[in-house]
Amino acid sequence: MADTPEEIQKHLKLYWKVGIILLACTVLTVVVAKVTPSITVGLLIATFKAGLVAAIFMHLSAEKPMIYKIMVYTVFFFIGLMFLTLLTMYDPAVSRVVN
C-alpha cells in the first residue's frame, strides 16, 4: 500500500501508462479487424490486454507463485471440460440416437 504522496504519484503514472497501452491495443484491435478479419489476431490482442489488466490493476504481479499454479490448473480444467463437451458432440452412440 502506498503511504506517501510520492508513492501514490508513482502508482498513478503506472496506471496512466497502462490505460494508454490498453487504449492503443483497442485501436489496434479495430484496425486489425478492418484490415483482416482474423479471430486469432484479435484474441491474441485481447489476451495481452487481459493479462495486463490482471497483472497491474488486480495486483497479480505482486502475488506469490502459488496463485499462478492455481490459475494454470484452472485453465487445464477448463480445457478439459471443453474437450469433454466436444467428445459428447461427436460421440457415435449419441449421434445415432439423435439421428
Describe the 3D structure.
The protein is built from four helices and no strands. The protein is 82% helix and 0% strand. The chain is flat. The protein has two domains: 1-62; 63-99. Helix 1 runs antiparallel to helix 2 (39-56). The mean pLDDT is 84. By secondary structure, the protein is mainly α. It has helices spanning 5-35, 39-56, 65-89, 92-98. The longest helix is centred in the N-terminal third of the chain and has 31 residues, at 5-35.
What tags apply to this protein structure?
single chain, 99 residues, mainly alpha, 2 domains, 4 helices, 0% strand, flat
Radius of gyration: 21 Å
Strand content: under 5%
CA distance, first residue to last residue: 61 Å
**Tally of extended strands?**
0
Q: From N to C, what is the helix and strand string?
A: HHHH
Mean model confidence by pLDDT: 84
What structural class do helix, strand and pairing data support?
mainly alpha
Poorly predicted ranges (pLDDT <50, ≥5 residues)? none
Characterize the overall form.
Answer: flat
The number of helical segments is: 4
